[in-house]
Amino acid sequence: MEGSLLALISQKLDDLSIEARELYLESRVPRLKKPPNPLEFYRKYVSPNKPVIIEGGITHWPGVRKWSPDYFRNKIGDQTVTVAVTPNGYADAVNGGKFVMPEERRMKMCQFLDILDKSDRHNPGVFYIQKQNSNLTEEFSSIIEDVETDIPWGSEAFGKLPDAVNFWMGDGRAITSTHRDHYENLYCVVKGWKKFILIPPSDLPHVPYETYQAAVYKQDDIGEFQIIDDEATGQVPWVAVDLLNPDLEKYPQYAKCQTVEVTVREGDVLYLPSLWFHHVQQSHGCIAVSICLIMGNLCWEAVSSTEQLAL
Ligand SMILES: O=C(O)CCC(=O)C(=O)O
């Protein structure tokens, strides 16, 4: 009885993912040539939870013209910033059967820039400024006037100001592994490019998860990275498949996912709706700002309980 009920639920979830694709999802992320008005943005993209690129959506930000390693060296070179360091570019990702988080280091911005342009050769590892605690408003407040911390058509459509504004800058080898967030994201590329691989929330039943022991990288005295268990964090459920090299023998259900690839170029904004899985690659030295708006709690609780069923 229980088995046939589970089979029925699984069939219905398969139908949902096929119907979502047929009814409203597109095989490519649409690109707008100019910013939408708030009502159009809300109706066509936010309400149906569909990503969209707004080409040139932030080209008026002074940062697009001004931001460069030299500008940062002069303006904020002496400021201390938080940097994620890994041996392989994968922070918050599975390695050797564990969910491994980066070593967080505090260093001067000029030191980070030296590492990025390879003039500091004593630092093995891949360095990425990627702290998602509204680090733009916290650690980079002296360059805040170079950007907008809220995008008017976005804030008006969501009816609220952003909860966090994050600054991202790093090595071309840094890859953000597949995950999803419960916030709405206006992802703005200020320099370089980012490549997102997206999976819609309706494909959740086909995304394989495993539970891993949490751990953290720690570089030892001879410069080698050790993986140290993080007992306080314990076990972490995480996406088990590598989107760049999926193991379909181990995770055959992943073949039912329909991934969508999109490149966000300098000056463009990607609206990344809440709950879409994303995997992110970037050009070397790419700089981005993500503007995040957290979904209401009630909505998140409703989604979580539906997801329990799917997983
Ligand atoms: O830019 C990146 O590397 C990851 C961005 C991301 O995952 C996010 O904004 O939620």
UniProtKB/TrEMBL annotation:
The keyword Metal-binding applies. Signal peptide: none annotated. GO terms for molecular function: hydrolase activity; metal ion binding; peptidyl-lysine 3-dioxygenase activity. Its EC number is 1.14.11.63. It is found in: Cytoplasm; Nucleus. GO terms for cellular component: cytoplasm; nucleus. SUPFAM superfamilies: Clavaminate synthase-like. Residues 132-310 form the JmjC domain. Keywords: Cytoplasm, Disulfide bond, Hydrolase, Iron, Metal-binding, Nucleus, Oxidoreductase. Its cofactor is Fe(2+). Gene3D superfamilies: Jelly Rolls (2.60.120.10). Its main location: cytoplasm. InterPro entries: Cupin_8, JmjC_dom, RmlC-like_jellyroll. This is Bifunctional peptidase and (3S)-lysyl hydroxylase JMJD7. It comes from Potamilus streckersoni.
